[in-house]
Specification:
Helix content is about 40%, strand content about 20%. By secondary structure, the protein is of the alpha+beta class. It has a four-stranded antiparallel β-sheet. Bound molecules: zinc ion. The site of zinc ion has 8 residues, from helix 2 and helix 3.
């Protein structure tokens, strides 16, 4: 999954309140294919129980947890996503 897409997905998870803290540094994240457990370690690293994280070391769930803790980052992503689409140039040419 491209990083952009992953960020968008993580943002979506936060917006839909699918991130729930269940303990000290432990979160339940309800993804599209199941509920995963995201754990934040004392050193700040985050791990997730989903197959994507195990394979690639990153996923939208762990990113979503990170976003819930960084409101500034969340806002800047929000701006990116809700940016009005660029206006296309008119193809019509004047004769
Ligand atoms: Zn995950």
């Amino acid at each position: 999954m491209p990083l952009d897409r992953m960020i968008e997905k993580a943002y979506d998870l936060v917006q839909k309140r699918r991130v729930e803290q269940v303990g000290e540094g432990v979160y339940n994240v309800v993804g599209n294919h199941g509920t995963y457990i995201v754990a934040k370690k004392i050193d700040g690293t985050i791990s997730c129980s989903c197959p994507g994280f195990i394979r690639r070391g990153r996923c939208s769930h762990s990113l979503a947890v990170l976003l819930t803790q960084k409101p500034d980052l969340l806002r800047s992503i929000e701006r990116q996503i809700n940016k009005p689409p660029e206006r296309k140039r008119s193809r019509r040419e004047r004769a």
